[in-house]
Every structure is written in structure tokens, then in C-alpha cells.
Amino acid sequence: MSTAFALSLAMILDAIFGEPKWLWSRLPHPAVLMGRLIGWADTRFNTGDMRKLKGALLVLVLTLCAAMLGLFLRHIPFIDPWIEVLLGAILLAQKSLIQHVKAVADGLERSLFEGRRAVAMIVGRETQELDAPAVSRAAIESAAENFSDGVIAPAFWFLIFGLPGILVYKLVNTADSMIGYRTERHRDFGWAAARLDDLLNLAPARLSALLLFPWGKPLSVWRDILAEAHRHRSPNAGWPEAALSRSLGVALSGPRAYHGELRDYPWVNPTGREAHTRDIHAACTRLWQAWGAVFLCVAILSFA
Asked: Which residue ranges does UniProt annotate as crossing the membrane (predicted)?
């Protein structure tokens, strides 16, 4: 079975089943196991001197172990291709992403409180004071960023390196989400995880922007996307965010609060209109269209 064919099957399984609660309420999700390991290492080694070196060694050891595990699993006789398909489906996140984003729209349609509570599940900013447009913006931004690093990036590395590629990527991405912060505790220890995650997402983020680009508009729009991506606080997240904002015609990003501190981030597509609940639904539709384009390309590759 080719890697492309395995990926196409994994994408179908993920799109159909997502992350079934009946399964993951009984078994630990692989990403949860990765998180537990990284959390233990953070507690055990993020102390004393040379924290940057310790963090770099941790990332090196964990990525090597993930790659070796992937190589081992893909060489188990008779069942190896199906392990690749199954783990690929588990480590992709298209359906679960759509479900979490749509939950925000559904919550907003009931009440602002429900919308805030739903969006708090998928963003790190403070949500208690957000109005309905700000909740909608947060959901759309999360959709764009997580489409890139939760769907396109793992599929990209799976297609190139198979099971070892997606395992290494998911481990690094999980490490970045846990220790890759510029806080006093993690500035040094999480430096290597954050930088490696940036590196692994360079190509997928730009590919995501192409997939989310508003192809019915002039190509000159790409210059605006490029400029805003370079101004963004993240070297990668700005690409899909700027592209999706242009597709929907809404303004994204802007000021927000983290841990009581207001951060005055620049607007993405500042001339766009205010985001509303209908734009969350439109974003989900756009993500499925982009997913379909990727699936079509992978399916063609699998029979090439």
C-alpha cells in the first residue's frame, strides 16, 4: 500500500468518525499520552541551570523515539499498512476541528454566554468579556490556525515520511502547545520545541493559505495576505488566518487579553466587516472545501 493511498484512507476515516467519545473515554488518545510524557519531563527536567540545553535534548530524544516507533510499527508483518491508516486517522483532526468550531456558532445562537463557553475550549485568550463578534473572530482564527497545524501539517508529513513523519510532527506540535511559551518558566526549556514546531509548519502553513485563498478575487489579494502574514505575531499562523479572512471578507485578530494583560495585536484584513455567527458556518464550509481539494490531490497521487 502506497503512503498516498494510506493517507487517503486515513483522511476518509477521520472525516467520517473524527474522535469518537466512546473510544477515547476508555482508551488514552496518543496525543494525550504524548502530553503526559512531555508534562512529566517538564516537571522532572525544567529546573536549575542549562534549561535551554535540557529542553533541546528532550526534544531530540523524543523525536528520535517517535521516529523509531513509527519505523517499527510500519514494519510489523501483515498488519503494518493498516496501522499506518489507523494511526493516521487518529492523528488527523478535520472532523473534530469542525465540530469544535461549529459548537461556538451553535452556542452563540443560544446565548452569548454559551458562545463564550464554547470558544474558551479552543482558544487561549480570555473570553469572559468578549462580545458576539469577538467570539466569532476567535472561532474563525482558531479554525484557520488549527486547519493548518491539525490537518494540513500532519497530512503533509505523513505523505512525505509516512508514519514516522506524522508521529514526529504530532509530538513536536504537542510539545510546543505545552512548553513552547515565552513565560519565565518555559522561555528557555521550551525554546527548542517552539523553534522546531515553527520549522515543521513553514510549508504546511503556506500550503494552507493557498488552499484557503479566495480564488474568485484578484491575485493581487495575495500581496495583502503576504504582508499581513509577515506582520503576524506567529511566523506561520498568519498565513491561513489572512487567507481565510479574505475568503470570508471579515476582519480578524486585533487586541485581546491573556492572563489579565491586554495585547494590541494588529488587525488582519482591517477593512473587512465585523464577523458574525454565519461567518463561522462559512469558515467550516471553506475548510471542508480545502480538505476536499487535498483529498483529491492525495487520491490522484495514490493511483499515479
From this structure: 55-73, 151-172
